[in-house]
Specification:
The complex is a heterodimer. Chain A is mainly α. Chain A has a single domain (22-85), classed as F1F0 ATP synthase subunit C (F1FO ATP Synthase). Chain A has helices spanning 2-17, 22-41, 46-85. The longest helix of chain B has 45 residues, at 149-193.
Chain lengths: 86, 251
């Protein structure tokens, strides 16, 4: 019973942690949209706009990746850790 | 018809005394290092003043590319960082691309990326102390007011942590998702073709036809696009952080 509770908590927690993916998704979409506008306005700056956009996207992705790492830890590490304590 | 999903970290290949271990990460890293060294030696042996071979033209093109890239982002002052950035980029890229061969990618081990990020962190701190002096560096931690010191210290340490986790998270998540998709397709294959009569049903597990198309597309994104992009971003951030650390802040 306790095992089942621990596993359930870890699984639900992992699912909740990945809600963090919403933010980067919105942010990156916004950044790419703005980059498209910039390229449409100044097509000759396409190269540098794309580079900057990719940089910004990668940095915006970081918060989502923190959530992902928490999710991975909850799935692969936390059950073993907590079950050993029981 | 129960498919086992195996997602593990680096396997330990050899245990040495004093608790030291040789893991898959290290062995694959040695392979990558040998590969890069070999390519460099092959590209640069018997160079001539006037290039006659295609090999030398490629080598000169690559060196020019990296030099211009570093100078454009960091300024002429940091031209000596070209080899460092080039080495970091080629290592990060080849370490991630090695997963195309089905080997364990060293960058999906957090130890590797933390190591690289720590190198960058020490360089950044060195330049901050060198440009502002030890006292100036200590003073910059207490800005704008004294109460903000803990936040500033956390901010200092979050730089290497975020760099390491960004590279690790991208590569590791790619391999985890690939493994999950392979397992799901194998299961689906068994469900669909397992009903076939006779030997066809028994062979369904041996020849998972559904695993043919979709994983290739995922692999194209996670293994090729994502790893090259993340290697590029790691180097880009390294250059930007180092260059901004060396800027004097007299404002």
């Amino acid at each position: 019973m306790e095992r089942a509770l621990v596993l359930m908590g870890c699984a639900i927690g992992a699912g909740l942690a990945l809600i963090a993916g919403i933010g980067p998704g919105i942010g990156e979409g916004y950044a790419v949209g703005k980059a498209c506008e910039a390229i449409a306005r100044q097509p000759e700056q396409k190269g540098s706009v794309t580079t900057t956009m990719l940089m910004g996207c990668a940095i915006a992705e970081t918060t989502g990746l923190y959530g992902l790492i928490i999710g991975l830890l909850l799935i692969f590490v936390a059950p073993g850790l907590f079950l050993n304590r029981l | 018809m129960h498919t086992q999903i195996e997602i593990t970290g680096a396997k330990i290949l050899l245990e040495l005394p004093f608790g030291l271990t040789i893991t898959e990460t290290q062995v694959n890293m040695w392979i990558v290092m040998a590969l890069i060294t070999g390519v460099c030696i092959w590209l640069t042996h018997d160079l001539k003043v006037k290039p006659t071979s295609k090999r030398q033209i490629i080598a000169e093109y690559l060196v020019n590319l990296v030099t211009n890239f570093v100078e454009g982002n960091m300024g002429k002052k940091f031209k000596s960082y070209t080899p460092f950035v080039a080495a970091l980029f080629s290592l990060a890229m080849c370490c991630s691309l090695i997963s195309l061969l089905g080997m364990y990618s060293p960058t999906s081990d957090l130890n590797t990326t933390i190591g690289w990020a720590l190198i960058v962190f020490f360089i950044i701190t060195y330049y901050k102390i060198k440009t502002n002096g030890p006292l100036g560096y200590a003073k910059s931690l207490t800005e704008p007011i004294f109460i903000m010191t803990p936040m500033n210290i956390i901010g200092e340490f979050s730089t290497p942590i975020s760099m390491a986790f960004r590279l690790f998270g991208n590569v590791a998540s790619g391999s985890v998702i690939s493994a999950l998709v392979y397992a799901a397709l194998a299961w689906l294959n068994g469900v669909i073709f397992g009903w076939l009569p006779g030997f066809l049903g028994e062979w369904a597990d041996l020849f998972p036809i559904l695993q043919l198309g979709l994983p290739a597309v995922l692999s194209l994104y996670f293994d090729i696009f994502s790893s090259v992009l993340q290697a590029f971003i790691f180097c880009m951030l390294t250059m930007l952080y180092i260059a901004s650390a060396a800027q004097t802040e007299e404002a």
